[in-house]
Fold:
Amino acid sequence: MVLIDQGFSGKQLELRLARMDLKPNEIDGILITHHHSDHGGGARIAQKRWDIPVFCNDRTATALNLDLSKVSLFENLDALEFGNDLAILPVPVPHSGADNVAFIASHRGERGAVITDLGSWTEELVNHVAGCHHISVEANYDVNRLMNGPYPMKLKDRISSRGGHLSNDQTGHFLSRVISEDTRSVVLTHLSEQNNAPHLAESVVLYHIQDQFEGDIQISLQDGPEFTHHIGQSESEKVAREGIYLRG
Ligand SMILES: [Zn+2]
Ligand SMILES: [Zn+2]
Structure:
């Protein structure tokens, strides 16, 4: 089992894993997308306290001041193998001041993508994510909330730049490029508490993908691993079927 990103204190990591009946020493490796503290700030403590191997690229390892004796450096676009049935490919994504990657995991014919912190996407990313069964992607901000909100103009510009974060609208557009009939679940992550809200992210993204997506859409919130569940088409179909069954 691998963990993608570790931005928590040691205590928080333990608590959050415990909610899923897991312990830190059950993790075989931690993969870090990029050095920003919400993604890599807890990698060093995981190395120190539990000896968990960390996997990241050179720039991320240097910026996080990691113990290099416990780091496996990867090159972007070189697949990592875990055991004999898990492969993970790091794909570079644009995020200013960082060498950020998305991860595409393959396991027994299933493919899943974890994509966060990018202001725009590349065709290379689209090619790798297309057809994934599960896609986790950030939906960071609602354009109106960001632009009319209290952040200074400089920060607004940085967030919405090509190297910043994806807006709900951009995430919906990206998903419309990569979702296929094989895609069964989408998880929206990294929602800004200041500049976004679950119902906005869900409705804007669904606007872009509702004609092509029949799986579940879920939203991950910052204060816990549990998801708020928003009903996608397959769920509503199930409910409809059960309703018919009960009535029949
Ligand atoms: Zn982040
Ligand atoms: Zn970041």
Summary: Residues 231-248 have pLDDT under 50 and may be disordered.
